[in-house]
Amino acid sequence: MAEYTIKVRRFQPESGQGPYWEEFNVDLDPSLSVLDGLLQAKDKEDGSLAVRCSCRAAICGSCGMKINGQSGLGCKTQIGEAQEQANKMVAATGVTAAVADSPIRGEDPSGVGGTGEPIVIEPMGNMPVIKDLITDMESTHWTKIRRVTPWLLPHGEPPEREYIVEPESMIDITQSMACIQCGACVSSCLSMEADHDFIGPAALAKAYRFVGDPRDAETRERLHDLAHDPHGIYDCTHCFSCIDACPKGVAPMDQIMRLRRKAGEEGIEDPNSGHDHEIAFVKIIEKKGTLDESLLLQESFAPGLKGKLKPNKRAIREMLGSIPTAIRGIKTGKMRSLHKLIPGVHPKLPDQDDVKAIYKHAEEHNEELNLYIRGEEGEDALPDGAAAEEVTNG
Ligand code: SF4
Ligand code: SF4
Ligand code: FES
Known about the structure:
The protein is of the alpha+beta class and 394 residues long. The protein is built from 18 helices and 7 strands. A 5-stranded mixed sheet has the order 2-1-5-3-4. A two-stranded antiparallel sheet has the order 6-7. Helix 8 (201-211) packs across helix 11, helix 9 packs across helix 11 and helix 12 (274-288) packs across helix 13. One iron/sulfur cluster is lined by residues 188-191, 201, 236-242, 252-253, 256. One iron/sulfur cluster is lined by residues 179-185, 201-202, 205, 245-246, 248, 250, 252.
């Protein structure tokens, strides 16, 4: 057994007060979970401490929360590991996650305790807080899940019994099927912080579950819908945060990239120029070894031209609309010299052998493996039946 201090961000709406921090001392075996610590504090110190949980085994998805600033499941995070993480964070930054993230009432300005730093526990982000650690999953999570039509849309008469498919044809979607709807990815999504209407990682991972399902007959319509929505697949900024947060290895960002790839393969032109933006990015890096941002803008909206704009009204409108962003870039020092605003002026990197090698490797290995099922590239294939077993256990 060991003693831990958990520092919980509390919010009691009936009090009429804003959120505040409260510390509890708990006594637990390090192998037990952060959720166990919270339940002990609730049992022994304050029965009004609100936390949602059910299975206590990383299955039901109820206990999403932020622990030391990182979104995850309370029942899957060992309290001993959370303590180590809290100590490391203070050693590296001098402050706890409470100070780093949340300037709220009752804050200890130093944020630093004794040898065992407090383990900071907060409700999930990007969602309204109902009470203490309980968030409103309906408004931001379930509404978005329903947005992607999370059920099969097959054509024709349904079979007398079940739809029969080859097991191999389902392998690609097993990763997205492992989702337990905990919302940890939504909580950690940086795009959603800026755009609350972004459909988001969990719902888009769910969308891929049906786009990749051989029984679904509306694949193109689904992709068209998600590509044309200004808050859809092209609103993700590739930050990897949802991959880190997901307790079930769903890797929502990878599912979003699969949706994008499939939309590209279907030749779906989106009004956000998201697909053209990706192509432009790849093309410019291949050519220059570095990102020429002004060329990126031009190539995204008027692809195929060098150094001048296609006389296309939309491209001109988008370029003009980006001027405030460019000015902000100059003011903040991101863009240091004015001449770099001129498309094509940004210099090439002198030696691009490594970049060329990366492109060559990518071209030679363009078959996508779903690593969730098949293991690392180059490993022996799993024996027959092993994939299914891993799926069941995943
Ligand atoms: S990778 Fe995309 S979906 Fe995932 S957290 Fe970042 S912005 Fe959100
Ligand atoms: S994708 Fe992962 S983090 Fe997101 S809701 Fe599903 S299980 Fe939770
Ligand atoms: S209590 Fe069920 S996932 Fe944590």
